[in-house]
Amino acid sequence: MSDKTPNGNNKRKKPLPNPTPRPGVQLWVLAGLLVFMFGAMFVSNVNSPAKINQQRFEQMLAVGDIERITLVNEKEVDVSLTPAALRKPEYQRELVRKSPFGVSGDAHFYFPIVDAKLFQENLDELQKTVPPAQRLALNIESREGLGDFVGKWGLLALLVVGFMFMMKRMGGAGGPGGQIFSIGKSRAALFEGGDKVKITFKDVAGLEEAKEEVQEIVEFLKNPSKFTVLGGKIPKGALLVGGPGTGKTLMAKAVAGEADVPFFSLSGSDFVEMFVGVGAARVRDLFKQAKAKAPCIIFIDEIDAVGRTRSKGSMPGGNDERENTLNSLLVEMDGFGTDSGVIILAATNRPDTLDSALLRPGRFDRQISIDKPDINGRTQIFNVHLKPLTLGPDVDAKKLSAQTPGFAGAEIANVCNEAALIAARRDKKMITDQDFTDAIDRVIGGLEKKNKIISPGEKRIVAYHEAGHAIAGWFLEHTDPLVKVSIVPRGVAALGYAQYLPKEQFLYNTEQLTDEMCMALGGRAAEELVFGKISTGALSDLERITKMAYSIVTMYGMNAKLGNVSFYDSKGQNEYGFSKPYSEATSQLIDEEVRHIIENAYVRTKELLTERRHELEVVAKELLEKEVLLQSDLERLVGKRPFGGQTNYQAHMAGTDRSETASEVKGEHAAAGDLSNDLPDLHLPGLDNGGEPAASGTAAPSSAVAGA
Fold first, then answer.
1. Is 273 a catalytic residue?
2. Domain ranges of the chain
3. Which CATH code for domain 375-445?
């Protein structure tokens, strides 16, 4: 199933509660207040008297140009000139330079003073020689101008309005901006009415079983009487479990598009905050809103961010905010005061880290596994993503699905997009099969680096290394069929690679695993056989076979000396702590058996390459000349592979790539009138309902690329 959705214009999500009101009025008030303050100060400064010093004042007083002297606020002295003095050119030039619009008020000049009493004494001293009738009296005033008023109260008003603006912003809805008073509010997005998601279950390809389980929840909400008439209850929660890119979020979007009830969507990290109590408060607020709109669905993506297993021991006096948030979530999902009508849908790719209390029935009644699709599922996904592309006549979705084993939906979407980009880069009118082949190589092996400088000696080593992989895999029965071998560098460190086409296989036996190890050791064995020395190019091969050998011994119980034991912890709960679940003697035996398995595989590989030395030389020389060899080239150089069998694509086209399911077998028997269908099913130990042994455990995955 793909995480990439088809083209559709979804309406914008509506956060809860209502969006923060646009702060237009507050901003205009702040801007107007600032303009008023600076304007008042400017006008007050422009229309103020010209400043002089006290010596100039004494000169003006001596020549009789002063008409009035005013002491203002005991800090400065205003000087008013006589009408005759105002007509003097020196005064006119000075006053015009100060203010082109003229000086307001009676005062024309001013100067500051230090002490009013001392100034009074100096003024009397200056006018001793002046007749008493002609002496100027000192007028005393106390005044406050516009600039003083603004300077005194304007800043306070600005602070008050700014504080009110900040409080209104912080009291708004949750979201970006750090609204402190709404920090405990839920950040879930609500889809209802006209805001419904346009994605439906028709847009979800592959994994029909998982889709059916999720569709049943939606069907229960649409038609509850169908289930309640028999006494059934709606599941309280469903957990979507699957690897990255398998389509968990897309499945949730389809639920939101199909359900006729309100749909809340958020991430597990939305509950995480550095402040104590915020996560729990957001959980409570989320369920409060959900209960108000019940029946409804809550989708929590990446729930492992808040639902990880709680620690068994905590520091005295310590506080774990994540655990408090999880406790609140547990209570809201299934606690003493829990109400019905709210369904929890969650997704995670790490179910092993989730707390057991969160996974129990009553909270998550269903765990829906969304695995990587099989070849039929990949065909359906390719059909979805190929619809908007302009394709050539040679593009076949079934062939592409056979070439991409192990691909998740997101990787398939990436392949389709890469193919379109490659075709556009080559100025093509349509996308051909070769473009898809190059796109698959790009996704698997990385970017091709044709201009990387490699010395001739290194190139020869890489050629024989990759030829060793190709020959070993060609003449071993249980290895995957070769697709291509190349010595063109790709990715970060791979100087060459051999690409194989793994089968759709779930169980492996010892012979198959041993052949896989021999194929991986073919590069190292070829280097030693041809050059008499080895290089570091086999790093990824050695890493792979070491893990495989340890899996054979410690996980699958396929070693004769250790017997049928497995030390694998499938639940991932680290029950053994720091100690190993076996003794030191067993540990030494494990290491010895792993070395023995790898050494036997290496000796077998060297013997095979020694026997096929001529084919090894032919393939290596052809690689040095052409750099890339396909399966048809190997058939031309060394003959057809001695082991027949259908490829994935051939088996898929012929319908022999899978066995019939139990339901299909029963359907055929019923059509034939088989009376055995009327008999009750027998549940025998170790057998499933279909009568076949139930397989437990998983096989070691097969890699598609063996790099140098």
1. no
2. 42-148, 182-310+320-369, 375-445, 456-652+702-707
3. 1.10.8.60
